[in-house]
Amino acid sequence: MSILTRFIHPPAPRIEAVGTEAAARLAAIHASAFARAWSTLDFERLLSERGVVADGLFLGRATKPAGFTLSRIVLDEAEIITVAIAFEARGKGHARPLLFHHLDTLSRRGVSRVHLEVEEGNAPAIALYRRLRFRDIGRREGYYQKADGTKAAALTMALDL
Known about the structure:
Layout: H1 3-8, E1 14-17, H2 23-33, H3 40-48, E2 52-58, E3 67-74, E4 77-85, H4 95-108, E5 113-119, H5 123-131, E6 135-145, E7 151-160
Parallel strand pairs: 4-5
Antiparallel strand pairs: 1-2, 2-3, 3-4, 5-7, 6-7
């Protein structure tokens, strides 16, 4: 493949499982996306837990993820704990294939229902979840701490796989 061909047709993003080796990068991505960031140690602990599954989004030939989703499986249900895309990769349509792949991974592990919480004001994420057929099942007042110190409600959503 020539350099010109690679420029015109960059490699497709790939999605693959990540573990504790990616903890520092996941913490950095999370910090760019949320007011209350989790530390590298938080990610190391989560990724070491039994039943925790994480998928990373890798762009081009990158060896570090540009996004990720992380879930905890308990019996036949899972909770998507967090989804984040690095600042420079946001708004480019990467979250949908990442989540689709992750939901497929959960399904192959025997999960029949997936839950998540999303900040009520996060319209792009809510629209994505609804396109993937998640449905609203509840609301939690004052669940999220925002950067300005105020609190925002969380919508709880679920999807039957």
